[in-house]
Design brief:
- The protein is an alpha/beta fold and 316 residues long.
- The chain has a domain of 166 residues: P-loop containing nucleotide triphosphate hydrolases (Rossmann fold).
- Strand 9 and strand 10 form a beta hairpin.
- Helix 3 packs parallel to helix 5 and helix 4 crosses helix 5.
- The two termini are 28 Å apart.
- The mean pLDDT is 88.
Length: 316
């Protein structure tokens, strides 16, 4: 049963370009994520996925809207007020190895969040449990970051995130640059973490990977949420033309089924010159005159499924 109070909720969240008011990186993002749920956030490069994760963690300041963690407001909090709230959430960076201090051994790196959060020192036995839960042997605790493979670095980053027992984990491109077998191991690890009641936000451009572990998908275009809903429903019948184009862009292994025409036309517009009306209209195969002049609102089309489009695609 879905919890009444979500672990993470945003309402009308906006983030402006630094020193450029009314030039939004994120525009009016409203969503909720519950404990024991995996939400996949996908979109092209520059769609605002990473910025969203950073805004939730307080690394960038929202210009409008609200963020709540377990019902407690985060946006607008001072650094002092935000610090205890951050204990309940952890961020896995795109390049985990680059987020490690190269002068510290993995044991010190994994235990560092506990010290920063003021929870206290972590014992060697606790460190061993953390890395073993992440799929590593205790021997890795004595190694320096440069001695780890890409997959080991990802798992060490997960162990570091688990040190503070977070209610929410945000993973930014968690499988990028990894072999397929290693990707599978990381995704299975996320499924195990989900079973403990932790909420996970997986940020990725790879729909094929996210499909296998996410309960729901959130599709971003030009910093705006254009579709959100159950993963199976979206893959079975995407309702926004942009979502359809992303699915059509996935590589096809069968030569007989390869596409001859690109699923998306044109380039992503600049956030400094957002199109009028629907911001996707210049690239949409189904554009109509209304799309060029009037911005669409959000339409509910099923249980926990909504789309921002004047003319949602058929659900058959």
């Amino acid at each position: 049963m879905t919890q009444l109070v979500p672990v993470l909720a945003t309402n009308g969240l906006c983030v402006d370009v630094p020193a450029r008011k009314n030039r939004m990186i994120l525009a009016d993002i409203s969503l909720a994520l519950h404990g024991g749920e995996i939400l996949g956030m996908v979109g092209e490069s520059g769609s605002g996925k990473t910025t969203f994760g950073q805004a939730v963690m307080g690394l960038v300041r929202p210009s409008a809207g609200t963020i709540t963690l377990d019902g407690q407001a985060l946006a607008g909090s001072s650094a002092k007020e935000f610090r205890p709230l951050r204990r309940a959430a952890a961020l896995l960076f795109q390049d985990p190895a680059a987020s490690f201090n190269p002068r510290l051994r993995i044991g010190a790196i994994v235990g560092e969040p506990r010290r920063i959060a003021g929870i206290g020192r972590v014992t060697t036995a606790e460190l061993a449990t953390l890395v073993e839960r992440a799929g590593l042997s205790a021997s890795v605790l004595r190694k320096f970051p440069h001695a780890l493979s890409g997959g080991q670095a990802r798992r060490a980053a997960v162990a570091r995130a688990l040190a503070v027992v977070p209610r929410l984990i945000i993973a930014d491109e968690p499988t990028a640059g990894l072999d397929v077998s290693v990707q599978g191991g990381i995704l299975n690890l996320f499924l195990d973490i989900r079973e403990q009641g932790t909420a996970l936000l997986l940020i990725s451009h790879n729909l094929a990977v996210i499909r296998h572990v996410s309960d729901r998908l959130a599709i971003l275009y030009l910093g705006r949420l254009v579709e959100i809903g159950p993963t199976d429903a979206i893959f079975r019948a995407p309702r926004h033309p942009y979502t359809r184009a992303l699915l059509d862009a996935e590589p096809e292994a069968d030569p007989a089924r390869r596409r001859t025409e690109p699923p998306l036309m044109g380039e992503v517009p600049s956030i400094f010159a957002r199109p009028t009306g629907c911001e996707f209209h210049a690239r949409c195969r189904f554009v109509r005159p209304r799309c060029r002049d009037e911005a669409p609102g959000v339409t509910g089309i099923g249980e926990r499924h909504s789309v921002r489009c004047h003319f949602p695609l058929g659900g058959g």
